[in-house]
Write a structure and sequence with these properties.
Elements lengths: L2 H22 L11 E14 L15 E12 L2 E5 L14 E2 L4 E3 L4 H7 L9 E3 L5 H4 L9 E5 H8 L21 E4 L3 E2 L6 E5 L8 E7 L3 E5 L7 H5 L10 H18 L2 E3 L4 H4 L11
Parallel strand pairs: 3-6, 6-7, 7-8, 12-13
Antiparallel strand pairs: 1-2, 1-5, 2-3, 4-5, 9-10, 10-11, 11-12
The chain binds zinc ion (ZN).
Protein backbone atom coordinates (compact mmCIF):
# COMPACT_ATOMS: atom_id res chain seq x y z
CA UNK A 1 0.00 0.00 0.00
CA UNK A 2 1.46 3.38 -0.93
CA UNK A 3 1.46 6.21 1.56
CA UNK A 4 -1.24 7.88 -0.49
CA UNK A 5 -3.26 4.74 0.06
CA UNK A 6 -2.45 4.70 3.76
CA UNK A 7 -3.60 8.29 4.07
CA UNK A 8 -6.65 7.61 1.92
CA UNK A 9 -7.46 4.64 4.16
CA UNK A 10 -6.96 6.79 7.23
CA UNK A 11 -9.20 9.49 5.83
CA UNK A 12 -11.75 6.85 4.92
CA UNK A 13 -11.43 5.48 8.46
CA UNK A 14 -12.13 8.84 10.02
CA UNK A 15 -15.05 9.34 7.63
CA UNK A 16 -16.49 6.01 8.77
CA UNK A 17 -15.94 7.02 12.39
CA UNK A 18 -17.73 10.32 11.86
CA UNK A 19 -20.59 8.49 10.12
CA UNK A 20 -20.78 6.01 12.98
CA UNK A 21 -20.82 8.77 15.55
CA UNK A 22 -23.43 10.71 13.61
CA UNK A 23 -25.57 7.66 13.00
CA UNK A 24 -25.29 6.06 16.41
CA UNK A 25 -25.39 8.96 18.81
CA UNK A 26 -27.93 11.61 19.60
CA UNK A 27 -25.05 14.01 20.23
CA UNK A 28 -23.11 15.14 17.18
CA UNK A 29 -19.35 14.62 17.39
CA UNK A 30 -17.53 17.54 18.93
CA UNK A 31 -15.37 19.07 16.24
CA UNK A 32 -11.69 19.08 17.03
CA UNK A 33 -11.80 16.74 20.02
CA UNK A 34 -9.32 14.54 18.24
CA UNK A 35 -7.61 14.65 14.91
CA UNK A 36 -5.34 11.64 15.34
CA UNK A 37 -6.30 8.65 13.23
CA UNK A 38 -3.73 6.14 14.40
CA UNK A 39 -0.33 5.63 15.97
CA UNK A 40 2.29 3.07 15.00
CA UNK A 41 4.92 1.94 17.49
CA UNK A 42 8.24 0.84 16.00
CA UNK A 43 10.91 -1.27 17.68
CA UNK A 44 13.90 1.06 17.59
CA UNK A 45 16.43 -1.17 19.28
CA UNK A 46 17.27 -2.18 22.81
CA UNK A 47 19.93 -1.45 25.39
CA UNK A 48 21.63 -4.32 27.21
CA UNK A 49 22.77 -3.05 30.58
CA UNK A 50 25.12 -4.98 32.89
CA UNK A 51 24.37 -2.78 35.94
CA UNK A 52 21.11 -0.85 36.04
CA UNK A 53 21.87 1.04 39.26
CA UNK A 54 23.05 4.30 37.60
CA UNK A 55 19.39 4.68 36.57
CA UNK A 56 18.18 3.95 40.11
CA UNK A 57 20.92 5.01 42.52
CA UNK A 58 21.39 2.61 45.41
CA UNK A 59 18.84 0.16 44.03
CA UNK A 60 19.47 -3.01 42.00
CA UNK A 61 23.22 -2.52 42.25
CA UNK A 62 25.08 -4.85 39.89
CA UNK A 63 21.85 -6.19 38.40
CA UNK A 64 21.52 -6.44 34.62
CA UNK A 65 18.57 -5.08 32.65
CA UNK A 66 17.36 -4.74 29.09
CA UNK A 67 15.70 -1.51 28.01
CA UNK A 68 13.20 -1.39 25.18
CA UNK A 69 13.41 1.58 22.83
CA UNK A 70 10.46 2.64 20.69
CA UNK A 71 9.70 5.21 18.03
CA UNK A 72 6.16 6.41 17.37
CA UNK A 73 4.50 7.52 14.14
CA UNK A 74 1.30 9.50 14.47
CA UNK A 75 -1.10 9.97 11.55
CA UNK A 76 -3.13 13.16 11.80
CA UNK A 77 -5.06 14.20 8.70
CA UNK A 78 -2.49 14.64 5.94
CA UNK A 79 0.38 14.86 8.43
CA UNK A 80 2.73 12.18 9.66
CA UNK A 81 4.53 13.02 12.88
CA UNK A 82 7.45 11.00 14.22
CA UNK A 83 8.18 11.04 17.94
CA UNK A 84 11.74 9.86 18.68
CA UNK A 85 13.88 8.08 16.10
CA UNK A 86 15.62 5.42 18.19
CA UNK A 87 19.12 4.09 17.83
CA UNK A 88 20.78 4.62 14.48
CA UNK A 89 19.84 2.05 11.84
CA UNK A 90 23.59 1.71 11.19
CA UNK A 91 23.91 -0.26 14.45
CA UNK A 92 21.92 -3.11 12.85
CA UNK A 93 25.03 -4.26 10.95
CA UNK A 94 27.41 -4.10 13.92
CA UNK A 95 28.03 -7.67 15.17
CA UNK A 96 27.00 -7.90 18.84
CA UNK A 97 25.78 -4.31 18.82
CA UNK A 98 27.49 -1.04 19.70
CA UNK A 99 29.22 -1.04 23.06
CA UNK A 100 28.87 2.16 25.09
CA UNK A 101 30.03 3.18 28.56
CA UNK A 102 26.87 2.04 30.38
CA UNK A 103 25.13 -0.21 27.86
CA UNK A 104 25.31 -2.07 24.56
CA UNK A 105 22.93 -0.91 21.83
CA UNK A 106 21.36 -3.56 19.62
CA UNK A 107 19.13 -2.96 16.60
CA UNK A 108 17.34 -6.05 15.23
CA UNK A 109 15.22 -4.32 12.61
CA UNK A 110 15.83 -0.88 11.19
CA UNK A 111 13.37 1.97 11.45
CA UNK A 112 13.65 2.47 7.69
CA UNK A 113 12.62 -1.18 7.09
CA UNK A 114 9.67 -0.92 9.47
CA UNK A 115 8.47 2.26 7.74
CA UNK A 116 8.97 0.64 4.33
CA UNK A 117 6.65 -2.17 5.46
CA UNK A 118 3.98 0.53 5.71
CA UNK A 119 5.08 2.03 2.37
CA UNK A 120 6.10 5.22 4.11
CA UNK A 121 9.28 7.01 3.08
CA UNK A 122 11.14 9.15 5.61
CA UNK A 123 10.59 12.29 3.52
CA UNK A 124 6.82 11.81 3.90
CA UNK A 125 7.15 12.57 7.61
CA UNK A 126 6.06 16.20 7.94
CA UNK A 127 6.68 16.85 11.62
CA UNK A 128 9.23 15.49 14.06
CA UNK A 129 10.00 15.88 17.72
CA UNK A 130 12.29 14.07 20.11
CA UNK A 131 11.90 13.60 23.82
CA UNK A 132 15.53 14.69 23.98
CA UNK A 133 18.78 14.55 22.10
CA UNK A 134 20.51 11.43 23.48
CA UNK A 135 21.64 8.96 20.85
CA UNK A 136 18.96 6.37 21.61
CA UNK A 137 16.32 8.94 20.60
CA UNK A 138 17.94 10.89 17.76
CA UNK A 139 19.90 8.05 16.14
CA UNK A 140 17.98 8.37 12.86
CA UNK A 141 17.19 12.07 13.08
CA UNK A 142 19.11 12.93 9.91
CA UNK A 143 16.68 10.80 7.88
CA UNK A 144 13.97 13.36 8.63
CA UNK A 145 15.66 16.66 7.83
CA UNK A 146 12.75 17.83 5.65
CA UNK A 147 10.23 17.63 8.53
CA UNK A 148 9.41 20.55 10.79
CA UNK A 149 11.25 20.10 14.08
CA UNK A 150 9.56 20.90 17.41
CA UNK A 151 12.17 21.37 20.11
CA UNK A 152 12.48 23.24 23.38
CA UNK A 153 14.76 26.27 23.10
CA UNK A 154 16.85 24.94 26.02
CA UNK A 155 17.40 21.63 24.22
CA UNK A 156 18.17 23.40 20.95
CA UNK A 157 20.78 25.58 22.64
CA UNK A 158 22.44 22.51 24.19
CA UNK A 159 22.29 20.41 21.01
CA UNK A 160 23.34 23.05 18.50
CA UNK A 161 25.55 25.14 20.80
CA UNK A 162 29.30 25.03 21.11
CA UNK A 163 29.58 21.97 23.39
CA UNK A 164 26.85 19.36 22.81
CA UNK A 165 29.14 16.65 24.27
CA UNK A 166 28.82 18.38 27.66
CA UNK A 167 25.19 17.24 27.65
CA UNK A 168 25.99 13.75 26.37
CA UNK A 169 24.87 14.60 22.84
CA UNK A 170 26.61 13.33 19.68
CA UNK A 171 26.02 16.03 17.08
CA UNK A 172 26.68 13.83 14.05
CA UNK A 173 23.44 11.97 14.88
CA UNK A 174 21.31 15.03 14.17
CA UNK A 175 23.45 17.70 12.52
CA UNK A 176 21.32 17.83 9.34
CA UNK A 177 18.45 19.18 11.43
CA UNK A 178 20.29 22.43 11.96
CA UNK A 179 18.85 23.58 8.61
CA UNK A 180 15.37 22.08 9.20
CA UNK A 181 12.31 24.26 9.57
CA UNK A 182 11.94 24.42 13.33
CA UNK A 183 9.56 25.62 16.01
CA UNK A 184 11.44 26.44 19.20
CA UNK A 185 9.38 26.06 22.33
CA UNK A 186 9.53 27.21 25.91
CA UNK A 187 6.88 25.06 27.54
CA UNK A 188 3.87 23.00 26.48
CA UNK A 189 2.65 23.18 22.89
CA UNK A 190 -0.40 22.03 20.94
CA UNK A 191 1.10 20.69 17.69
CA UNK A 192 -2.03 20.69 15.53
CA UNK A 193 -4.02 23.32 17.41
CA UNK A 194 -6.85 20.87 18.13
CA UNK A 195 -5.71 19.40 21.44
CA UNK A 196 -4.96 16.01 19.93
CA UNK A 197 -1.16 16.01 20.22
CA UNK A 198 0.49 18.05 22.95
CA UNK A 199 4.14 18.47 23.74
CA UNK A 200 4.62 18.62 27.51
CA UNK A 201 7.73 20.29 28.80
CA UNK A 202 9.39 17.84 31.22
CA UNK A 203 12.96 19.06 31.76
CA UNK A 204 15.52 17.44 34.03
CA UNK A 205 16.90 14.42 32.21
CA UNK A 206 18.25 16.98 29.74
CA UNK A 207 17.80 20.79 29.71
CA UNK A 208 14.84 20.73 27.33
CA UNK A 209 13.44 17.23 27.73
CA UNK A 210 9.81 16.89 26.65
CA UNK A 211 7.02 14.30 26.67
CA UNK A 212 4.10 13.82 24.26
CA UNK A 213 0.40 13.52 24.99
CA UNK A 214 -1.52 11.75 22.22
CA UNK A 215 -5.32 11.70 22.22
CA UNK A 216 -6.36 8.56 20.34
CA UNK A 217 -10.01 8.14 19.32
CA UNK A 218 -10.50 4.64 20.77
CA UNK A 219 -7.44 3.96 22.94
CA UNK A 220 -7.82 7.23 24.82
CA UNK A 221 -5.03 9.43 26.04
CA UNK A 222 -1.49 8.09 26.02
CA UNK A 223 1.47 10.07 27.32
CA UNK A 224 4.84 9.09 25.88
CA UNK A 225 7.08 9.97 28.80
CA UNK A 226 10.40 9.87 26.99
CA UNK A 227 13.11 9.55 29.64
CA UNK A 228 11.34 11.69 32.26
CA UNK A 229 11.38 8.24 33.86
CA UNK A 230 13.04 5.29 32.15
CA UNK A 231 10.70 2.65 33.58
CA UNK A 232 7.62 2.47 35.78
CA UNK A 233 9.40 1.43 38.96
CA UNK A 234 11.60 4.52 38.75
CA UNK A 235 8.57 6.72 38.12
CA UNK A 236 6.58 5.23 41.00
CA UNK A 237 9.50 5.83 43.36
CA UNK A 238 10.56 9.16 41.81
CA UNK A 239 14.08 7.84 41.31
CA UNK A 240 16.43 10.06 39.36
CA UNK A 241 19.39 8.65 37.39
CA UNK A 242 22.81 9.79 38.54
CA UNK A 243 23.63 11.32 35.15
CA UNK A 244 20.54 13.53 34.75
CA UNK A 245 21.03 17.22 33.98
CA UNK A 246 18.92 18.41 36.92
CA UNK A 247 17.54 16.23 39.72
CA UNK A 248 14.94 18.70 41.08
CA UNK A 249 13.54 19.41 37.63
CA UNK A 250 13.32 15.67 36.99
CA UNK A 251 11.21 15.10 40.11
CA UNK A 252 9.00 18.08 39.24
CA UNK A 253 8.52 16.69 35.72
CA UNK A 254 7.49 13.31 37.11
CA UNK A 255 4.98 15.09 39.38
CA UNK A 256 3.66 16.97 36.36
CA UNK A 257 3.19 13.73 34.42
CA UNK A 258 1.36 12.19 37.39
CA UNK A 259 -1.00 15.20 37.49
CA UNK A 260 -1.63 15.01 33.73
CA UNK A 261 -2.25 11.26 33.91
CA UNK A 262 -4.81 11.75 36.69
CA UNK A 263 -6.56 14.68 35.01
CA UNK A 264 -6.69 13.05 31.57
CA UNK A 265 -7.17 9.43 32.71
CA UNK A 266 -4.09 8.85 30.61
CA UNK A 267 -1.80 5.86 30.28
CA UNK A 268 1.85 6.68 30.84
CA UNK A 269 4.08 4.79 28.45
CA UNK A 270 7.65 4.55 29.66
CA UNK A 271 9.79 4.22 26.58
CA UNK A 272 12.49 2.04 28.11
CA UNK A 273 10.20 -0.18 30.23
CA UNK A 274 10.61 -3.49 28.45
CA UNK A 275 7.83 -5.26 30.36
CA UNK A 276 5.35 -2.53 29.49
CA UNK A 277 6.60 -2.24 25.91
CA UNK A 278 6.10 -5.97 25.32
CA UNK A 279 2.38 -5.47 25.93
CA UNK A 280 2.04 -2.64 23.39
CA UNK A 281 1.13 -3.59 19.80
CA UNK A 282 4.01 -2.82 17.45
CA UNK A 283 3.94 -1.97 13.74
CA UNK A 284 2.47 -3.10 11.39
CA UNK A 285 -0.25 -3.23 14.03
CA UNK A 286 -1.38 0.19 15.22
CA UNK A 287 -3.37 1.95 17.88
CA UNK A 288 -6.35 4.08 17.02
ZN1 LIG B 1 16.63 7.02 26.41
Amino acid sequence: MSNTHVLATLRAGSFVLILALTAGCAQPPVAGTTGVQRMYVFDCGEAQIPDVSPWSPGVNVGKPAVFSNNCYLIAHGNDLMLWDSGYSDLIAVVPGGMVGPRSTAVVQKTLAAQMAELNIKPEQVTRIAFSHTHMDHVGNANMFASATLYIQQAEYDAAFGTDPAKFGFVATNYDKLRASPSVKLSGDYDIFGDGSVLILSTPGHTPGHQSLLVRLPNTGVVVLTGDAAHFKENFDNRRVPTFNFNKEQTVQSMEKLARVAAAEHAQLWFNHDRAQSSGIPHSPQFLD
